[in-house]
Amino acid sequence: MFKLLIRHGTTLLISLFGLTLLTFVLSQRGDSALHIYQSQHFMGQYLEYLQYLLAGDWGYSSIHNRPVLYDFLQHFPATIELVMLALLFAIIFGLTLGIMAANRRGKWLDNTLMGVTLAGYSMPIYWWGMLLVLLFSLTLGWTPVAGRIDYIYDVPPVTRFMLIDSLLSQDQYGFDAFFNALLHLILPAITLSTIPMAIIARMTRSSLLGVLKAEYIRTARSKGLSQQRIIWVHALRNALIPILTISGVQVSIIMSGVIITEYIFAWPGVGKWLLEAVSRRDFASIQAGILALSLLVIAFNLALDLLASYMNPRLRRPS
């Protein structure tokens, strides 16, 4: 386990070095970039850049004339709220569909579910998002079109996580504000989670079918255990190890799709903020947003890798 932590720590340091070096190089434009590349003090300037980052000085927005870190922190909770719910949807429904398909291997339910996941994997996010808005918002009127909450609710931004803040305002609105915020969150989360859900479902089916061929599963069947008990108690734990690993990759997919999703649903998160920064050529905001989102992806992947390693008994043995 100690060697595992050393390996993950080394990977994290290399990733952080490469990421910060890339953002430093990209932040230099034109003649200044050429001067830095030819300078003998390149590493010194890079270390000075790291010191500014660690001190919280990520530059100033040329549009708003204030620290970009302030702008990022204003939009970050909305993105995290959306990403976490999308990841939760992807894992819960992906696992459920994969288990159902593996339990009915080769039957009509298996073929139907795998066909549905293939369709979900093939749909572009922008098309899928607009289709959901057209059906559930404009045609059926079940969900709001855009935003985080209706304007009739004046929820104080205590944590800036709308679901939490709406619960904190129970004395004023009861649960009405919370359910309204949840309704605003459902369609963007479904849009963002569809592709990862399809991948996790197919990975769950494949991994579970491989585990079900193991010797200890045949022993469990010979003892008369039911198929459901075998799957949920004995097989799923070992099948989850590669699923957790692939879930880390899905975080990258979700973060890459969050920009388009936030734009479609006018979601006031980091993705929409980055698009506005690109349209206005606010280079400091672009650099800070890309750096922060990349750090978030690295952190998610590291956490899921550690969790998958912990669930693998071979890696928990003392070395």
TrEMBL record:
The chain crosses the membrane at residues 82-102, 123-142, 177-200, 239-266, 286-308. It holds the Pfam family BPD_transp_1. Keywords: Cell inner membrane, Cell membrane, Membrane, Transmembrane, Transmembrane helix, Transport. CDD domains: TM_PBP2. The keyword Cell inner membrane applies. Its main location: membrane. Residues 76-308 form the ABC transmembrane type-1 domain. The keyword Transport applies. It is a multi-pass membrane protein. Belongs to the binding-protein-dependent transport system permease family. OppBC subfamily. This is ABC transporter permease subunit.
